[in-house]
Specification:
The chain is mainly beta. It has a domain of 124 residues: Glycosyl hydrolase domain, family 43 (Tachylectin-2, Chain A), CATH 2.115.10. The protein contains 3 helices and 21 strands. The strands form 5 sheets. It has a 5-stranded mixed β-sheet, with no helix packed on it. A 4-stranded antiparallel β-sheet has the order 1-2-3-4, with no helix packed on it. The longest helix has 17 residues. 40% of the residues are buried. The N terminus is likely disordered. Bound molecules: beta-D-galactopyranose. Beta-D-galactopyranose binds next to strand 5 and strand 13.
Length: 391
């Protein structure tokens, strides 16, 4: 496959170099300069990097630092088992968002047997934020321990002095051990439940909403699966994750160094079954985009709004409009990227998963803008940043 992409790329490069003023490709590039050849986004198509290879950064997120965008994501491999971490987290850099330089493996899966991040564990949805106070780049990611399916439900931490890494693994944990959510009513703390409630019955749903799994996991710490990070204007950072068997999303505050949980958290729509969170801020309000829970299969996105990160949150429904809006255009959210220097200009970043051959997963990047005060995402076969001009 790689050979095919290379051949395609070589053809494009050759054709462009024949144009009188390509401006983008020149015959004598400095060795480490990225060959600039993409001028648009083509959601769902193969997207080659500076090595002419399909970008390998699934479930990704973006850090903007020193005028450069850094894209971190899961390095997937071919065939069965390709969704487990056999390589780790890969990093790419870009200044124009179309053309990405492969910066190598930022966090390597470990060869050491018994390590939390041993090869064959699951490392998903890595996100990196920069801490101004410590000067450290802080990566959190969803971690599942090797051989345990998705039962560990932990979050992992790795840090680096440089954006591109290498990142050093620090710890993995279940957050908010023995802590109550800040919005949890006092009267419910001592409430007890029948333990034999049948799943999905009305009585079970009510118990979930009241905190059945919250209490079950209190000793060990709350489950943390699909996750994202968000840094607010005041420098405070939050870890947002699917918890309680993916039934309830939690928003948790991180410590000033971003490397621990303070124990302050809220539950968002208990029993709402939301995952794949992506949080951003617009005009002083917070917006949280999420998906439903259907594994690798797409479902309908949903977006929530709050004026305070601790809530109350209201649902604004599905931000997608048009054909296949009910399947998020065959993708699942992973990040919302604010475009630097532009107002009301965001990119919806989603994954079109291909579990039979994970490395072939495609990226669905689409413009997200506010229409009548509602975040809106529409499909485009091909688009570029000029779509945001004149707003
Ligand atoms: C999805 C989740 C992915 C991955 C997958 C495993 O629901 O969003 O990140 O965990 O399940 O089946």
């Amino acid at each position: 496959m790689k050979t095919k992409f290379r051949t395609q790329l070589n053809t494009i490069v050759l054709l462009l170099s024949l144009l009188p003023v390509s401006g983008l490709i020149s015959g004598c590039q400095p060795k480490d300069q990225v060959v600039q050849y993409h001028q648009s986004f083509k959601p769902g198509e193969i997207w080659v990097d500076s090595d002419s290879i399909h970008i390998n950064a699934h479930g990704g997120g973006i850090l903007f630092h020193d005028n450069t965008y850094y894209w971190f994501g899961e390095h997937k491999t071919e065939g069965r088992g390709g969704n487990t971490a056999l390589v780790g987290v890969r990093c790419y850099s870009s200044t124009d968002l179309y053309n990405w330089k492969n910066e190598g493996v930022a966090l390597s899966a470990s060869d050491e047997p018994g390590s939390d991040i041993e090869k064959g564990s699951v490392i998903e949805r890595p996100k990196v934020i920069y801490n101004e106070k410590t000067g450290k780049f802080v990566m959190w990611f969803h971690l599942e321990l090797k051989g345990q399916g998705y039962s560990a439900a932990r979050t992992g931490l790795a840090v680096s002095d440089q954006a591109t890494g290498p990142y050093t693994f620090v710890k993995s944990l279940r957050p908010n051990q023995k802590e109550w959510p800040v919005d949890y009513p006092e009267s419910m703390k001592s409430q007890e439940y029948k333990t034999d409630l049948k799943w999905w019955t009305p009585a079970w749903r009510e118990a979930i909403s009241d905190g059945l799994f919250l209490k079950r996991d209190s000793e060990e710490g709350q489950m943390s699966r699909d996750m994202t990070l968000f840094v607010d204007d005041d420098g405070k950072a939050y870890h947002i994750h699917s918890s309680e068997d993916n039934l309830t999303m939690h928003i948790s505050e991180l410590t000033d160094d971003y490397q621990s949980f303070t124990g302050k958290y809220v539950r968002l729509f208990p029993g709402g079954h939301n995952e794949a969170p992506a949080l951003f801020k617009y005009d002083g309000s917070y917006y949280l985009l999420a998906s439903g829970c259907t594994g690798w299969d797409p479902n309908d996105a949903r977006i929530f709004k709050a004026d305070n990160i601790w809530g109350p949150w209201e649902s604004l429904g599905n931000p997608c409009v048009g054909e296949d809006a009910d399947l998020t255009f065959h993708s699942q959210s992973t990040y919302i990227l604010p475009i630097q220097g532009k107002e009301n200009a965001y990119i919806y970043m989603g994954d079109r998963w291909t579990p039979k051959n994970p490395i072939d997963g495609r990226y669905i990047w689409l413009p997200l803008t506010f229409e009548n005060e509602k975040p809106t995402i529409r499909w485009h076969d091909e688009w570029n940043l000029s779509i945001f001009e004149g707003r």
